[in-house]
Amino acid sequence: MRNFFNFLKSKTFLIQLGLAVLVLIITIFIVLRYLNSTTNHGEFVEVPDFSKKSVMDMRKSIEEAGLRYEVLDSANYNPDYPRFSIIEQNPTAGSKVKENRKIYFTVNPSGYKKVTVPKIIQVTKRNASSMLKAVGLDVQRVTYVDELGKDMVYQIKFKGKYIKPGDKLPKTSKIELICGNGSITERAVIKSESED
C-alpha cells in the first residue's frame, strides 16, 4: 500500500496526470470548435412573414433566407386571403431558427369545397334551414307561393335557378327557399269543385 502512495507522489505519475489533463482539455476544445462550426451554434435566421404571399413568392423568399419548406394539405377556404396564398406557417414569423430549417406552410385553396344540397323538399322551413346550416349552406331569402302546406319547402333556388336535393354547391352558398303560404290556389279550388 505504501508503494502505491509513493507512486501517487512520484514525478512520473504527476507528469502523466498533467499530460492526461492537457490532452482532455485539448480534445474538449477541438470537439466544441467542431460542433460550433457544423451546427452554426449561436447563428440564427429570423423567419420572415409569408402570410398572404403566393407560393411562387414564398419560394423565392425562403431560398434567400437559407431555409427549406414543405407545403401541407390546403385548409378550408378563407375568403380573407388570396387564392393559393399562405394562410399559416410553422414556425411563426419572427421566430429564430437555424439555417436550413424546414418551414411548414398551409395554402389557401382556390375556393370553398362543394357540399351536397340535403333533401329538404316537403320539409318545414325551420327544419330545412337547420339541415342547410349543418352542411354549410345559408338561407338568403324565403319566397312564399300559394300552396296548402304553410312554411313547407316546395322548391329551392340558387342564383335565380332552380336546383334539387343532391346538387353540389360551394360551401357558404346562399340559397332561396320557395315555401307554401297555407293558401290553396284558385285553380286548385275550381278543379276540386268541378270534380264533385
Structure explained in plain terms:
With 196 residues, this protein is α+β, with helices and mostly antiparallel strands. Among the domains are: 45-108, Trypsin Inhibitor V, Chain A; 114-184, 2-Layer Sandwich (Trypsin Inhibitor V, Chain A). 35% of the residues lie in helices and 28% in strands. It contains 5 helices and 11 strands; from the N terminus they run H-H-E-H-E-E-E-E-E-H-E-E-E-E-E-H. The strands form 4 sheets. The protein has a 4-stranded mixed β-sheet, with helices on one face. Strand 8 (153-158) and strand 9 (161-163) form a beta hairpin. The longest helix is centred in the first third of the chain and has 29 residues, at 11-39. The N and C termini lie far apart (132 Å). The model has no long low-confidence stretch (mean pLDDT 85).
CATH class of the domain at 114-184: Alpha Beta
Using only CA atoms, what is the Rg?
37 Å
**Protein structure class:** alpha+beta
Q: Approximately how much beta-strand content do the residues carry?
A: 25-35%
Succession of helices and strands: HHEHEEEEEHEEEEEH
Distance between the termini: 132 Å
Low-confidence stretches: none
Which of globular, elongated, flat, extended, rod-shaped describes the shape?
A: rod-shaped
Classify the helix fraction into a percent range. 25-40%
Taking strands numbered 1, 2, ... along the chain, how are they ordered across the largest sheet?
Answer: 7-11-8-9
Number of helices: 5
- What is the mean predicted local confidence, pLDDT? 85
Number of strands: 11
What summary fits the major beta sheet? 4 strands, mixed
CATH T-level topology of the domain at 114-184? Trypsin Inhibitor V, Chain A
Looking at the overall shape, the CATH architecture of the domain at 114-184 is: 2-Layer Sandwich
Organism: Maribacter caenipelagi
Keywords: Membrane, Transmembrane, Transmembrane helix
Domain PASTA: 42-109
Transmembrane segments: 12-35
